[in-house]
Amino acid sequence: MTAASPITRSDLADLLAFYASAGVDDALEDAPVNRFAEAAPKPAERTPMAAAPARENVQQQPPSAPSRPDMSRLPDAPPARAPAGAATVPDEAQAALARQLAATASTLEQLRQHMAAFDGCNLKFTAKNLVFADGNPNADLMLVGEAPGRDEDLEGLPFVGRSGRLLDRMLAAIGLDRTSAYIANVIPWRPPGNRTPTPHETEICRPFIERQIELVNPKVLVNLGGPSAKTLLNTTEGILRLRGNWRVHTTASGTAIPAMPTLHPAYLLRTPAHKKLAWRDFLEVKAKLRALT
Ligand code: URA
């Protein structure tokens, strides 16, 4: 048997090209690493990435605005993160802190800052950016998806990849675009490898999206896909049964917002025969917006 020849730069380039073509977009190590057991990063170390604003917010934020809320001024605030090694899964304390931070945000910009400073969701530690929102916060229509994918994570904006391009076409079909609609996700950080967010992660992030909806106060809400519909419409029904039927999303302050669950653009890319169903749902949305404005 001959000795193994050394790996060259060109071998490595071929290997990387193979991984890329196979859809591998996360670099993992050979040996598993328990990230939860590692010391939590100091807030100062995380600030540049965690607080990296979405493109639209760069313009909106005045230069003097603080990038983080003063956690110590929140009444009875639990620690921003469980002590290192104390918990391996998100827990109720993090959800309670998320609720408190969401409730104390009185503007969208404050909410974005509170979310950027929040360390209670593990997804933040593998994501590159907070994906807060895109579009017009004064729009009559708000659409909520599930969670950012790779492209969204890189850009810090929701629905900018393939499914985003389809969403733009669906909006255009009813005469709208990102200047006349506001877009966000239930989960603002990309789950690694685009895995499904866990119920814990969803519960921790739920107060943020609920407050975001309350602050935008749209006339009509569209839930893109089952996870958004189930989380925000308090139902366990599947999206194929839910879609096409008006529901109501009720905010913490009691405002009832008509909500249309519809099929997620990523699902439509895989199942183009169902585009006609989404088209019908969007026509319903158009008619509702006409009736309410
Ligand atoms: N899918 C989603 O649910 N949200 C995005 O932002 C992108 C893809």
TrEMBL record:
Top-level taxon in the UniProt lineage: Bacteria
Region (Disordered): 35-91
EC number of this enzyme: 3.2.2.27
Compositionally biased tracts (Low complexity): 82-91
Database matches in InterPro entries: UDG_Type-4/5 (IPR051536), Ura-DNA_glyco_family4 (IPR005273), Uracil-DNA_glycosylase-like (IPR005122), Uracil-DNA_glycosylase-like_sf (IPR036895)
Family: Belongs to the uracil-DNA glycosylase (UDG) superfamily. Type 4 (UDGa) family.
Name this protein carries in UniProt: Type-4 uracil-DNA glycosylase
Species the sequence originates in: Mesorhizobium amorphae CCNWGS0123
Taxonomic path: Bacteria, Pseudomonadati, Pseudomonadota, Alphaproteobacteria, Hyphomicrobiales
